[in-house]
Amino acid sequence: MRAIVLAVSAAALSATLPANAAVLTIGGSFAEGCYKFAESKTATYDALQTCDRAFAEQALSSDDELATYVNRGIIKMFRSDYGNSAADFDRAIAMDPKRSEPWLNKAILHFRQGDSAGAIPLFDKAIELSSDHAEVAYYGRALANEDMGNLKAAYLDLKQAQALRPEWDAPTKDLARYKVSRP
Description:
It is elongated, with a radius of gyration of 16 Å. The chain has helices at residues 30-39, 45-57, 62-78, 82-95, 100-112, 116-128, 134-147, 151-164, 169-175, and strands at residues 3-5, 23-25. The protein is mainly alpha-helical. It is 63% helix and 3% strand.
């Protein structure tokens, strides 16, 4: 099996930042089912059980194991099980600290919990690791910076998110709230 990154509906980021870097596993398995639940933002008990069964009943490659931790962490986040969500993201980070998805999702988790100060360095790390979803990382960091009162940094991050994905309307809508004046 091979893991690839797919974004979960980035358009929904404008209100509250949901998880956005589910990791696909290929091969018709519980791990793939876990990905599909995370990607569709399904946070049912059955979704969680599917992820748990991937660990219990399948021999997962290290990539698929990492992906399943990320995907299960996303499902737990949607279930408001924040402590266990963070633990899954931390396990994925420990497995491969150079993968951006766990960092990005952990940043989103911190932001969703109202911890903008804690989210910013995690968004930074996802950006540093060349996230396949850099626009989401910049957008999330923009929202966190705005929440912290750092409006210049927020504006610049919104511009970067817009430049990276021009068809995504969330950064453009947020930029419309800004008025730039030159002294």
